[in-house]
Prior knowledge:
By secondary structure, the protein is an alpha+beta fold. It folds into 2 domains: about 1-60; about 70-205, Nucleoside Triphosphate Pyrophosphohydrolase. The chain has helices at about 1-20, 25-45, 50-60, 105-115, 185-195; strands at about 70-75, 80-85, 90-95, 95-100, 120-130, 145-155, 165-170, 205. Strands 1, 2, 3, 4, 5, 6, 7 and 8 form an 8-stranded mixed β-sheet that branches. Helix 1 runs antiparallel to helix 2 and helix 2 packs across helix 3.
Amino acid sequence: MPHAWLEIAKRMQALAQAGLTYAENGYDRERYEELQTISLDILHRLTDEPVEKIRSLFTNETGYQTPKVDVRAVVFEGEKILMVRENTDNRWSLPGGWADVGYSPKEVAIKEVREEAGLVVEPTRLLALLDKKCHPHPPSPFHIYKVFILCRTVGGELVPGLETNGVGYFAEDRLPDLSLDRITETQIRLMFELASNPGRDVAFD
């Protein structure tokens, strides 16, 4: 139930933000501001976090609200997949992060692997485009699309970066403690399946 209320609050916030962007009179703005306040109150009651803290996180964007994009690189060495250990929670994920303005998805994948794992890679195939809410991640205040891009290693040296403290290859049946906000076990297993079947269509939600 809390997860359902979180999705309601996120949708309300998106509607309020769009309304505030395009409102043509004060009456409309007042109603959209009230809707925004209600969404913040729901989040406050769900999390016990101060309203102002939630406001700074949840309403820090202007304009029409759209999903954020998380790009993950999928790199194999034989039957093992490349993973990095994140500094923020000391758990493991596929190298990747938020899509940067001015970078294509391929360029984001290349940059993230270089920065987090020390390797130079070449993107070869889009494996999946997933909606985070359709998978067993912890609740998030943002609506996020996750892009998974298969890459092959062409150079570099396996070494952690500024945001990671570990890097290595793992077999499908010996996965480490996962950073569940970033990746789930079912998603990793899906990457193994998709990468081993070149004829498979791109997986998408």
